[in-house]
Design brief:
The chain is α+β, with helices and mostly antiparallel strands and 629 residues long. The chain folds into three domains: 4-106, 2-Layer Sandwich (Phosphorylase Kinase, domain 1); 113-300, Transferase(Phosphotransferase), domain 1, CATH 1.10.510.10; 343-627, no CATH class. It has 21 helices and nine strands. The strands form two sheets. Strands 1-6-7-5-4-3-2 form a seven-stranded mixed β-sheet, covered by helices on one side.
Amino acid sequence: MLVQQQQRQMPITPIPSNARKVIENFSYALTDAIGKGFSSVVYRGRNDETNEIVAIKVIDKKGLKTPLHYQLLKSEVEALSQLNSNNIMRLYKVYYTENNTYLITEYCDSGDLGSLLTKQGAQKEPQLQKLFQGIIQGYKQMKQKGIVHRDLKPANILLKGQIPKIADFGFATTPQTVTTMPNVNVGSPLYMSPQAFKNRYSEKSDIWALGVSLFELLFGQVPWQAGTERELAQKMAIVPVNFPGHISDECRDFIQRCLIVDENRRATVEELERHIWLQRQELQVIKGNGFSSISRGSHGGQANHLQFHGVQSNGCINTTSPLMDNHNKQQMLIQQRESNYGKENNTSSIARQQQNSIQQQPLKSIKRVQESRKESQVNQSMNQEYSSQREEEWNDNKKNDYIIVAQMNFCRYLYRVAALIDKYRFVTTPYLREKLLFLVNKNIMIKMNNLQELVDGHNTLNLDKFQDYIQNCQFNKLSAAINQYNQKYTLQFNTVWLSLQNPEQKQLLIVDKKFDAVFDDNFTEYESFYIILNSILRSAIKEIEYQLEQKITFQDTQQLLPIDIEGGVILLDYLITYFQLASLIQECFEDHYGFAVDSKIEQIADGKPVRLTYGHYIEIRNKIKQLDI
């Protein structure tokens, strides 16, 4: 396949939203976006010469902030340029302009295997046998070209009709790039081989990922669940694969051959191609897998699945790499270390249970999650009433509920952040702590103002079929919870606001003109608020990191941190997560559903306390470097 790479000057005249943007013989409408990443947008486009539907990934070069970002993009293009298989997403052309890079690719109209699992639950074995026959053929060509994917998983296998297409080569290495690729850990932990955890990637690490993916598609869960990456790697090495349902002996052997810890004994792609499971023409029809209540991310209270990529079911490109957006970050997100500080009472637990009933989409990184043992009466009655509704009403209402509850969970998380800022005095720059505490509480009130507007009949969150939605009893119950939250948070904001009204203190605060621009009790949401917020968060994170560096003498990574230092590390971890969430809000400023899906805020807002070690602190410091804070 010949991939043309062209450099041309694109017009800088603003384009009307209903116009089609033209790149040579390709065009797309700005209203036809089908996916979005940190610095990229994917559009459903068209080849104007042939009328073929294509996907056009527009990458904003301003988002490529480090040499690694450019290297990942270069590797993606190099890999796709060398491949021409019916089971690999085709790259047609690449265009480079002063501001953007455009990847013109095949359009896949049936989503991906990850979204298929989300919508339909566990899949039948005969269907997966046919799919994996194609996947193995696609991977066989990758091996022939010396390409290692490094992030294979269901979400990165697209569907064009019934044909599987390996996609998202943002972390791939080729013979041309493997020697220059920085030594960084990439991929999604749940699908990484034991060797990949040690930054060793090869064909055999991709084979492992295919085995995990097949297992998950069959049973709705991955083979191992754990609270941390370290624990996950340990389980992979010592805990045998346990099959929770009935599959054929041939399929079981296929998976086991993929998941051999010793990669020298692990199957090659040629061995898998010849495996009896793929060669057998007639598989016994299996009526279900013997595994009921499939809920991704809810097995044993562990977040056990992959990231959601933001590409709709009719999309084709995974937009999260190589741009290192806030949700992917090479799947190197630090696990949330929860504390008891700022925990709210049972009345605030509405969000967790309601969101589990709405959309089971776990975090992109492995986090410790505290499952509520007791459903609130609100959730019980809502679940009962949902079950009696027509299917279309269920779909409309649950999406709206999901958006609302995500906003409430974000406020719950910020409430805990505010409590930590108030408790731990690791921010010593004059008035930096006061600014931060004010902004956190104002952020809560901004979100609560949007929610209160919903209660008052204004569609501030762009909910679907809003007038119909606000008439149902589920919304009435959420409204009651919103009112309860609003009273509590308003009282807290007023306390902080009044504490900063001393004339002398106020004068010193507003010397900072950026802060002065948001230092008021106006709760209208503007993007500029988050820009200023992240600037102040960045200053606080740097200062806390410096304070900790002066106090910590490194010990064994498994040793617990001293109590007087642990509080600062907890606060640092929370502020880093807040920084990421604020960045995500900017990306999804009017896409509240996108924020709900990509943040997985329900799992961030709920957690259980763990004691931190020196190893945790090292991870957090590495995260600061990765985020370039």
